[in-house]
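Re: [ENG-882] Designed sequences occasionally contain unexpected residues at chain ends

Forwarding the minimal case from QA. Structure tokens:
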């Protein structure tokens, strides 16, 4: 089981180094925030919908979580761990605004 919390540069480096098809970038921001932009190839599930939509995610993949500032990713991290996701990586320092520059 790998459940990690890391800063944005480490988070992006790990995601980019993951073998193709082995990782999912998950945006847990609200719809209005996502309308302003999101990371390429990210999947969007708002935090409030995540408990009901966990089945849409593949437990065999690493799940990379991000939001605007890092607060919602910590809640999403706990939801996914509780749902039995063994590989969850969380960006806790910074968020979308910093991640999009990396």
């Amino acid at each position: 089981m790998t459940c990690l919390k890391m800063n944005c540069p480490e988070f992006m480096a790990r995601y980019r180094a993951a073998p193709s098809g082995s990782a999912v970038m998950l945006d847990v921001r609200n719809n209005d925030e996502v309308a302003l932009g999101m990371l390429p190839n990210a999947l969007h599930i708002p935090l409030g919908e995540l408990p009901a939509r966990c089945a849409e995610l593949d437990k065999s993949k690493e799940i990379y979580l991000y939001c605007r500032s890092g607060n919602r990713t910590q809640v999403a991290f706990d939801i996914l761990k509780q749902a039995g996701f063994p590989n969850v990586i969380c960006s806790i320092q910074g968020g979308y605004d910093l991640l999009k520059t990396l």
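QA comment: On inspection the terminal residues look reasonable. The chain has one domain: 2-99. Proposing we downgrade this to a documentation issue.
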